[in-house]
Amino acid sequence: MIAQLPLLWLLVAFFAAGAAVVFSSIRATRLADIIADRTRMGEAMAGGIILGAATSLAGVVVSTDAALGGDASFAFSNAVGGIAAQTLFLAIADTLHKNANLEHAAAEPANLFQAVMLIILLSMPLTAIAGPDIAYFGVHPISIVLFLTYLYGVKKSSNVAEDPMWTAVKTSDTREDEPEDGDEPQKSAWKPIRAFIILVAIMGAGGYVISQVGGSLIDRFGLASSLVGSLITAVVTSLPEFVTTLVAVRRGALQLAVGGIIGGNTFDTLFLVLSDIAYRDGSIYHAIGTTDLYWLSTGILMTAVLLGGLILRQRQGPGRIGVESVAMMVIYGTAVVLQVRGG
């Protein structure tokens, strides 16, 4: 129904859905921080699991809906393109955090572990793509392995957060994860949780509208699915992560900012699992093109650079932006140029 609208109304629906997702995410960031304090979960875990999953919901809907429609490239590129875009957002946030390099100030073992898990999860589709074209009931076995690995990673991330085997060296620029005044743990978390669930529902509805509009643009203008998926719907559905990152940095919740991006990206790998299940013409990993594979490789490379920055913890680079942030901007910019020229 949405796809049949005139172009003007189609664009209005697209921007309205994007705005609804973004504004819901702003409020969700505040609630996630409160929930983290009142449940003693901690900012890194709240960012990685609660906030990361919630702000990724719109993207889940886009990829799943595209896979149901038989467009494997759209579904796949929306997932991996979003991961690359969201990693870029941390580099942008680094330019806005003036006190020190963001990766230095937000030192947290849980974020390091989640970054390692993300590289592992993103590497799994590569093994499927390089391997034989097999599928059982339309689902490639690697999707099941990826899902189980994600669950294992979430459990181990919680263990790292609760009982770390090592701690980062504290400096004058390290930002501690401490409850804010008025958010004491003894207060009930149920009220902010209920409000958070409502915002998640709004984000999901917005994601459906964005998916329908994106599919319509592909059909009407003959655009490449990988182009629309990686640079239009992926970026728009990733705007919540961008907004929540900036809001979290402004609030001084640096672990929440970094954890939200890395944890959100880890959750985004499940887009591929759901897309493989929804895609009924066999394994989705063998129905994509080389451009989609390039965005997957870009996501792995940017995550590896980010992990290196979190370990190196450069205190102050040129203009107090870390070298890893500059590298991530260059990698993403190169990917965009190649995508536009090729698609």
Helices and strands, with pairings:
Blueprint: H1 7-38, H2 43-55, H3 57-68, H4 72-96, H5 102-105, H6 109-130, H7 141-162, H8 190-221, H9 225-251, H10 254-268, H11 270-278, H12 290-312, H13 323-342
What does this protein look like?
By secondary structure, the protein is mainly α. It has one domain (2-159, 189-342): A middle domain of Talin 1 (Up-down Bundle). The chain has 13 helices and no strands. The chain has helices at residues 7-38, 43-55, 57-68, 72-96, 102-105, 109-130, 141-162, 190-221, 225-251, 254-268, 270-278, 290-312, 323-342. Helix 1 packs antiparallel against helix 8, helix 6 packs parallel to helix 10 and helix 12 (290-312) runs antiparallel to helix 13 (323-342). The chain is globular. The model has no long low-confidence stretch (mean pLDDT 83).
Label this structure with key terms:
343 residues; mainly alpha; A middle domain of Talin 1; 13 helices; 75% helix; globular
In short:
This protein has 343 residues and is an all-alpha fold. Helices cover 75% and strands 0% of the residues.
Poorly predicted runs of 5 or more residues: none
Q: H/E series, N to C? A: HHHHHHHHHHHHH
- Total separate domains: 1
Biggest pleated sheet: none
Provide the CATH superfamily. NCX, central ion-binding region
User: What proportion of the residues is helical, as a percent range?
Assistant: over 70%
The top level CATH class name:
Mainly Alpha
User: Mean pLDDT score, rounded?
Assistant: 83
Would you tell me the structural class of the helices and strands?
mainly alpha
Main location: membrane
GO cellular component, one term: membrane
Subcellular location: Membrane
Transmembrane segments: 6-23, 44-62, 74-93, 105-128, 134-152, 195-215, 227-249, 256-274, 294-312, 321-340
